[in-house]
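Re: the request from the purification team.
They wanted to know what the chain is likely to look like in 3D before they choose a buffer screen. I agreed to run a prediction and write the result into the notebook, where they can find it.
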Amino acid sequence: MGKLKRETIFRYLVTAAILAAVIVWVIRLNDITKTQLVNRTGQTFETGIVTEILQDNLQADGTRVGQQTVVIHMTSGEKEGEDLVTTSSSGFLFGAACTPGLKVIVMQSVAGDAVITSVYSVDRTLVIIGFAVLYIAALCLVGGMQGVRGALGLIFTFAAILFVYLPLVYRGYSPFWVSVFICAVTTLATMYFIGGATKKTVCATAGTIAGVVIAGITATLFSRLTGVTGWNVSDIESLMVLNQTNGIQVGGLLFSGLLISALGAVMDVAMSISSAMKELCDQRQEITRLELMKAGMRVGRDMMGTDSNTLILAFAGSSLSMLVLNYAYDLPFLQMINSNNIGIAVMQGLSGSFGIVLSVPATVVMAAYIYKH
């Protein structure tokens, strides 16, 4: 018992040392002095509440033209507690349709005694945070402990993208290989939270990584054959500034995003197949490796269609505005099918689906050999 206790303590100490080293690395990784792309001296975004409408822009037909002149009681910043007269545009991207009592975000520029303000948008902070908290609560209540573990995996994935992926890409590392690293780490962590340190977790992790890498290889082949690259995206002009000032490899961002987008669906397929095969193996310990593989493939085939549809529909849904515009302008087929935007959407949908489909046999083969080793 004494030896077992010492081994347990040693494992905890090693885990704590590794965790401490990772935390220190992440802190140092985020210690970045960013290149100033826009001069924001004296400019801040503050919160306020609309108290009075001095001049409205509401037309007789219900539309808004021009801008409103409003009084806003500031609730943060240098002018906190003061009432400021400012304007709110009627644009779709900036401004807000102000009414008394509306909470807004105010873009404020202070230079000495001069203050220039305008309404940036409605204050959505509490609503966004509230919905996120409600989702986590629903996940935990419905899923029980599995839901709690799933929530931990989700939080870990978000933190990995925010505090590891973005700083590494900003420092000039390849977005593609950084995303492969992030996918591997987040998959391992999520699977561990859900399944623990078991063979099932190993199989699901290996199958997920295989599917994500296959998606990346397929996207690369598609790019080589069609000429569609990460330099053909619509916001390339802004990205070129980052390339010239910071050396960010913007050409790889498209493929990097594809891998991260496909991760969730591939992870779902791999874990479902791995879990089903493990259950079957536990119930029938005399089952042969070949029979286990056949059973795994039958489970995988049932999942291929729905999960592939999930990914393709997700990319199609994000491109609906572009499709509606193409339809309305009645573009010729050859022009539409050979446009960069359509090419990118097709590459994302099909490459991710390739990863899902081929992750099935990869997971089945690895699980059969691991479970029946």
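For the purification team: The CA atoms of residues 289 and 368 lie 6 Å apart.
Please add any questions underneath this entry.
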